[in-house]
């Protein structure tokens, strides 16, 4: 069995060094490579200068047996990766007919005139193997040179993702006889990483040596990824799945989904399955709760609308919050947020409703109610539940955390059937 | 005059290579270094392994005269940058009393028990100069070794930003006698990069050799950054400012602000200055318009609320859109969105109102109204204006673009005085 290669990711472009663009490609590639069990040894971002690209290639091949390159394949004059690679591998650019046909087809479909620079996208170094790019005009290029694999991809994220998923990862698995790896993702919410770890410590400790558990925290919860690598025994995936019932029991109500799915999507599926409609009333979240819910395609099937009641007048007029409640308890109180949820349910004509009110900061805090004081409520035909908590990590994060907690409150309280 | 050094940015952490964390620190550092005229030669992300950090340090000093390192300074066992650096520079860790006092002070303030690992944060290599970290417990460390400067900073973004801004950049300017550079940022909206470039081509061409203009595009507009570097003549900034009146004329109504300020913030300042209140009615933007507006601290002074009318019932019931309008023109029409804006203004009791309606996709398009068909409207006491356009770059971007266009419509139509 050949040893698994280390991988170097090389991203090319002055815009990365100037900080005009944040390199998100590397993180995607790192994640996908980890999933098939390949280790990234280093990520290097280099300029558009030919001599510096060549120097970086020389160094990368000292460190890694696979070098994945993105950027510098566009039609403009700054993009010279292709020319540099042809020279680096002692080759020359030749026309790749299938790529030309593909580029022509794209221009025909969009009814755009094809310029000479577009035609040049079909030129590739003679000694590379083309990795077909169905979603763009710049082809991927696979080189093998003295035992090292070099792959060049465009830097446009959705094109890079297509090439990685459809072309590069499968070829790497085959080329290096990478043993199958299986992943199971379990989504949790409402429990921090260390508490979660405590809750499943002995379950995790008892995992076989070829099973690994990764904690992937996000604001408000943790994704768990169980990875099983080949141990020569059959039925790898089934053996992993056999461990899940116990994990589910341990996670209890913190587990909200299995697989790659967001909380707002899971909540939407619950609403759909139960035939319930949702409305929201938002103060501190200022529309972000509705935005998260509506970011899911098809959400119009269960989401009817939101009343963002930033001003107290709107809370009374549009949501029916009693002036006496506001006067006695203030806008940021469980009493007010309960009336907001109940009002939203009635005004928006929905089965269930969520409401938020809090002090997002940076100003507006008092000794009684410091910045980060948050109230949320959920209402349905059976009644209303509310929660109060403090979370202060700056305005933006406070609001994002509130949205997660509100969606979780809905998930926990949704009636099983209507 | 010494030559300006090249800079290498080195980010340390397995989480970067696994893609669990996107490296945003490098982009910030690249931007700030560019602003003082220093070039980043390469960005390298490396693992938490001591031998690989050392190998990367050896290579970085071949390429650059300044190596800025982030990550690996926390209190946990994985964070070993400090130990590696001490060994690399043939030094040993010693207690830095001012840092210890600072760490103790932080724990006292937060009333947390101080553990031994926290005390160890005050250990630094004997041969470094400490760069004070007022916003965290891990100090910055400045080394000079055979003419190369190495600076180590924590990877926590707000701590790194503090250290860069307050400590590292000023010291680099002094150490390398970096000549002053001046920047003027001009914000535009509503015109693409190439059209903008055309409009100011001859103005740009006539710039003195030491003045450079950078186009920094975002979804819906372009930031322009004029950079002036020292040419030995006095009054650099004044000479740059003297060019602005002509630029302002060329940009016309596309210019919305000067300086580092977002469109939603500029719009908020206009509303504040004119003493006007704003409400919104949102269909396709689903709350994002209100969220952007309320992401600005202090927005409660002018923003009263939003009615997110995702379902048509809400459009009629809460915003007073006529059923006949919906029936005749559909929800995505200038007619409907005008009534939404007018309804929001009345229902929310505001001086002005914005409304959005569109087909965000991926589904819901028709031959007449394909995905990406967007209508926006602005209403005030004088009347209502609306726009219709097509923008189809996927659900999320369609919605973001709509928000920008709506804010711009408000900016263009806001009455000078009420």
From TrEMBL, chains A, B:
Q: Which Pfam families match?
A: CinA, CinA_KH, MoCF_biosynth
Source organism per entry reads Hymenobacter canadensis
InterPro entries in the record = CinA, CinA-like_C, CinA_C, CinA_KH, Competence-induced_CinA, MoaB/Mog-like_dom_sf, MoaB/Mog_dom
The record's listing under CDD domains reads: cinA
Q: What is this protein called?
A: CinA-like protein
Domain MoaB/Mog, first and last residues per copy? 8-175
So what family is this one in? Belongs to the CinA family.
* PANTHER family per UniProt: NICOTINAMIDE-NUCLEOTIDE AMIDOHYDROLASE PNCC (PTHR13939), NMN AMIDOHYDROLASE-LIKE PROTEIN YFAY (PTHR13939:SF0)
Database matches in Gene3D superfamilies: 3.30.70.2860, CinA-like, MoaB/Mog-like domain
Domain of life from the UniProt record: Bacteria
């Amino acid at each position: 069995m050949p040893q698994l290669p280390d991988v170097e990711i090389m991203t090319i472009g002055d815009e990365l060094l100037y900080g005009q663009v944040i390199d998100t490609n590397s993180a995607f590639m790192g994640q996908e490579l980890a999933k098939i069990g390949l280790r990234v040894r280093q990520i290097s971002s280099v300029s558009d200068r030919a001599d510096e690209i060549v120097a970086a290639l020389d160094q990368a091949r000292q460190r890694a047996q696979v070098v994945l390159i993105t950027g510098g394949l566009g039609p403009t004059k700054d993009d010279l990766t292709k020319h540099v690679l042809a020279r680096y591998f002692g080759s020359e650019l030749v026309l790749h007919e299938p790529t030309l046909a593909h580029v022509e087809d794209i221009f025909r479909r969009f009814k755009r005139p094809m310029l000479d620079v577009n035609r040049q996208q079909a030129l590739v170094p003679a000694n590379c193997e083309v990795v077909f790019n169905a979603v763009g005009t710049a082809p991927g290029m696979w080189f093998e040179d003295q035992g090292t694999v070099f792959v060049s991809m465009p830097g446009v994220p959705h094109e890079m993702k297509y090439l990685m998923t459809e072309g590069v990862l499968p070829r790497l698995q085959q080329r290096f006889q990478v043993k199958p790896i299986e992943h199971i993702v379990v989504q949790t919410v409402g429990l921090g990483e260390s508490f979660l770890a405590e809750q499943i410590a002995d379950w995790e400790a008892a995992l076989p040596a070829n099973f690994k558990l990764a904690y992937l925290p996000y604001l408000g919860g943790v994704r768990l990824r169980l990875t099983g690598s080949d141990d020569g025994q059959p039925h790898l995936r089934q053996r992993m799945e056999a461990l899940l019932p116990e994990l589910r029991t341990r996670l209890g109500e913190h587990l909200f989904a299995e697989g790659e799915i967001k909380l707002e999507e899971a909540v939407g599926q619950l609403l759909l399955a139960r035939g319930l409609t949702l409305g929201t009333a938002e103060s501190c979240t200022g529309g972000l709760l509705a935005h998260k819910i509506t970011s899911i395609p098809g959400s119009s099937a269960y989401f009817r609308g939101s009343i963002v009641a930033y001003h107290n007048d709107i809370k009374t007029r549009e949501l029916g919050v009693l002036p006496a409640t506001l006067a006695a308890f203030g806008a940021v109180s469980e009493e007010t947020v309960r009336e907001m949820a109940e009002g939203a349910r009635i005004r928006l004509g929905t089965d269930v409703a969520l409401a938020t009110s809090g002090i997002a900061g940076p100003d507006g805090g008092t000794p009684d109610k410091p910045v980060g004081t948050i109230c949320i409520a959920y209402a349905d035909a059976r009644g209303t539940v509310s929660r109060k908590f403090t979370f202060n990590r700056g305005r933006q994060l406070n609001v994002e955390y509130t949205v997660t907690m509100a969606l979780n409150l809905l998930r926990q309280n949704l009636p099983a059937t209507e």
